[in-house]
């Protein structure tokens, strides 16, 4: 089948014929001049001239033919380049139309100049509905207030590429959460001409994350409830303690949050550590479930033998929580609970129990809970004593700084004593003179 030539092919061929035509015209024209100047010349002399004139004629003819051939080649090269460019553009557009993500281009004012079909689907709008509108106008007000300054930062050269996440208002009145990449479009002179990027609908992803976060919070709340319920098993045997556990965890959180600002502990105390201390501190006396009622509930001073039995509650609690911790890997709150149960009766100077640890050999968690526990015990009424005032408890804690208590934690207590007073007022147990 004979393929019909297009305009480029016809133009290219015509340039070659044009060169041949001019060559022929030049030959005839020079022959006519020779005949006009010398009518008596032979026909061969008229058409060919002298040997020198013949060479000149052939050179000129060759030049015209070369010119035509060169023009023909250049035209065809240009056609091939344009065809290649057109095919590349078509391929580029085909790729853009086939991807699930939206692709968009906007000018420096934020107005749409190009977008693919996926962009229309994400924005739930037609081509005419989006074309020549501003991308920012399709965003919710809060997202728009963040997006417009971002484009301004691009125009001022303070940004070159970034990811923007915001809420999109669709034509149908719905809302979507979208993630957009934004980068500058520059020309050969490195001048900015607009922005381009990919837009993705992440509404489902954000809903899933929200659901997972809610599930995680539910699990944490359930865990906290189980820990509190377990701790109450020991506390309910002693009717004098009131809301001791709830106050204990509040005091402990106040102290650990304050310590997190100390240069010595800022790299060690994380948000997770703070949360674990909060929940685990209430398990400090879980071992008391193994102490006989006759000793635990005794009215009056304990004998040395009875006190030795009481002291076993730290070992009982620590071993119990160690056994639980061994069944669950990477449960940091159980590890901290075990440390607290074992060592919250150790003293900074080494005179405590069960192991006589001293200084920083005592786990930080236990050192924190020791101060919380003693403060609450001092300011709480018991069958064998009245509640001390805050000032009296404060004086005792300061006196034991560096002996019973870690000096850093005593300093944290002094810095936060107003928080301790507030918790006491809200949760009961104030000594005389503090109300």
Explain how this protein is built.
This protein is an alpha+beta fold and 435 residues long. It has 3 domains: 7-98, no CATH class; 102-201, 2-Layer Sandwich (Beta-Lactamase), CATH 3.30.450.20; 208-427, Orthogonal Bundle (Hypothetical protein af1432), CATH 1.10.3210. Helices cover 59% and strands 9% of the residues. The protein has 16 helices and 5 strands. It has helices at residues 7-37, 43-48, 51-98, 117-123, 127-130, 141-155, 203-235, 244-259, 271-280, 293-296, 304-327, 332-343, 364-378, 390-399, 407-415, 417-427; strands at 102-106, 112-115, 161-169, 175-186, 192-201. Strands 2-1-5-4-3 form a 5-stranded antiparallel β-sheet, with helices on both faces. Helix 8 packs antiparallel against helix 9 (271-280) and helix 8 crosses helix 15 (407-415). The radius of gyration is 45 Å and the shape is rod-shaped. The model has no long low-confidence stretch (mean pLDDT 80).
Helices and strands, in order, run as HHHEEHHHEEEHHHHHHHHHH
Please indicate the count of domains. Answer: 3
CATH superfamily of the largest domain: Hypothetical protein af1432
- CATH topology term of the largest domain: Hypothetical protein af1432
Query: Helix proportion of residues, in percent?
Result: 55-70%
How are strands sequenced across the largest beta sheet? 2-1-5-4-3
Overall pLDDT confidence = 80
Strand content: 5-15%
How many helices does DSSP assign?
16
CATH-scheme architecture of the largest domain: Orthogonal Bundle
Shape type:
rod-shaped
The N- to C-terminal Cα distance equals 107 Å
**Beta strand count:** 5
- The CATH class designation of the largest domain is Mainly Alpha
Radius of gyration: 45 Å
Low-confidence stretches: none
Q: Which structural category fits the helices and strands?
A: alpha+beta
Strand count, sense and barrel status of the largest sheet are: 5 strands, antiparallel
């Amino acid at each position: 089948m004979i393929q019909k030539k297009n305009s480029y092919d016809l133009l290219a061929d015509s340039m070659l014929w044009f060169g041949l035509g001019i060559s022929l015209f030049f030959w005839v024209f020079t022959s006519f001049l020779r005949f006009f100047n010398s009518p008596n010349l032979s026909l061969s002399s008229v058409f060919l001239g002298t040997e020198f004139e013949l060479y000149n004629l052939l050179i000129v003819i060759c030049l015209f033919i070369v010119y035509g051939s060169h023009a023909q080649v250049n035209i065809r090269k240009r056609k091939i380049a344009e065809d290649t460019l057109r095919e590349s553009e078509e391929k580029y557009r085909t790729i853009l139309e086939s991807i699930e993500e939206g692709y968009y281009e906007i000018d420096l004012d934020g107005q749409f100049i190009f977008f693919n079909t996926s962009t229309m689907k994400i924005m739930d709008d037609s081509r005419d509905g989006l074309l020549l509108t501003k991308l920012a106008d399709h965003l919710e007000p809060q997202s728009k207030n963040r997006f417009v300054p971002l484009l301004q930062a691009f125009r001022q050269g303070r940004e070159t590429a970034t990811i923007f996440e915001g809420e999109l208002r669709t034509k149908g009145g719905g809302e979507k959460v979208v993630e957009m990449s934004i980068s500058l479009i520059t020309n050969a002179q490195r001048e900015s001409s607009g922005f381009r990027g990919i837009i993705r609908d992440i509404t489902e992803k954000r809903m899933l994350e929200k659901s997972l976060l809610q599930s995680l919070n539910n699990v944490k709340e359930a865990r906290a409830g189980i820990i509190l319920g377990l701790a109450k098993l020991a506390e309910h045997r002693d009717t004098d303690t009131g809301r001791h556990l709830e106050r204990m965890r509040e005091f402990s959180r106040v102290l650990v949050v304050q310590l997190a600002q100390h240069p010595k502990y800022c790299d060690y105390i994380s948000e997770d550590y703070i949360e674990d201390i909060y929940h685990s501190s209430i398990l400090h006396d879980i071992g008391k479930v193994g102490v006989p009622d006759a000793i635990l509930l005794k009215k009056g001073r304990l004998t040395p033998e009875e006190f030795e039995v009481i002291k076993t509650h730290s070992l009982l609690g620590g071993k119990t929580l160690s056994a639980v911790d061994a069944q669950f890997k990477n449960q940091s709150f159980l590890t901290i609970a075990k440390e607290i149960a074992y060592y919250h009766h150790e003293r900074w100077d080494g005179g405590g129990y069960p192991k006589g640890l001293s200084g920083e050999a005592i786990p930080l968690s236990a050192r924190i809970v020791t101060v919380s526990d003693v403060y609450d015990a001092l300011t709480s009424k018991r069958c064998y004593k009245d509640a001390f005032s805050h000032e009296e408890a404060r004086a005792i804690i300061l006196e034991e700084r560096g002996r019973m208590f870690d000096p850093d934690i005593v300093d944290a207590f002094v810095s936060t004593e107003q928080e301790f007073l507030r918790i006491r007022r809200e949760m009961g147990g104030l000594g005389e003179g503090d109300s």
